[in-house]
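The instructor's notes for this session suggest beginning with a concrete chain rather than abstract definitions. Hand out the sequence below and ask the class to guess, before any prediction is shown, which regions might be ordered.
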Amino acid sequence: MRPSLERGSGQGRLMFAMDATASRQPSWDTAAQIQVEMFSATSSLGGLAVQLAFYRGFGEFKVSQWTDNGAEMTRLMTSVSCLAGETQISKILKHALNENRKSKVDALIFVGDCMEEDVDALGHLAGELGLVGLPAFIFQEANDPIATFGFQQIAKLSGGACVQFDRASAETLRKLLSAIAVYAAGGRKALSKLAKSQGGVVRQISNQMKLN
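After discussion, reveal the predicted structure:
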């Protein structure tokens, strides 16, 4: 039985993970500029603490300290340059599980465009996320079919959602990030309320969660 995805009042905790391999630099730069809106979107819900996680290059995987300061997150992100390498999504999922054991993490966001790992192994980790009530929200840039299948499996097994967006659409990414920040801080009720008022990709996220 999946744990309740409702949360009480207080600061939400959101892990914000990104693929920082070579092809990702334009989207990384965009996300660095708009992520601050995650904090403002949750100000009336108790606020938000975010941890940045990313992989790049030859097996490099890094995480930041938790912060509730949008300017600090911008500083962290703008200091990172993307480097060529293979995907390391399993490290993100394992890290999310480890962080959740220390203190409850309300949501995981992953932004990427490809997947080069065993989907069954990733599915097992995603299922563990689902068991502890930590949904993964996968925002897929472009439409690589292998990545689409894998990302959808991770989202479903964890109790989250998977949505595609266009690299040129910063506005769509802004709405996606803000929606999950609202979920992390206010739970399903807050997300449903936002979906009713905004529709579009936010409603798409909400509807997927209802099916999981």
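Then share the key points. Strands lie at 12-19, 48-56, 60-63, 107-112, 136-141, 161-165. The CA atoms of residues 39 and 69 lie 7 Å apart.
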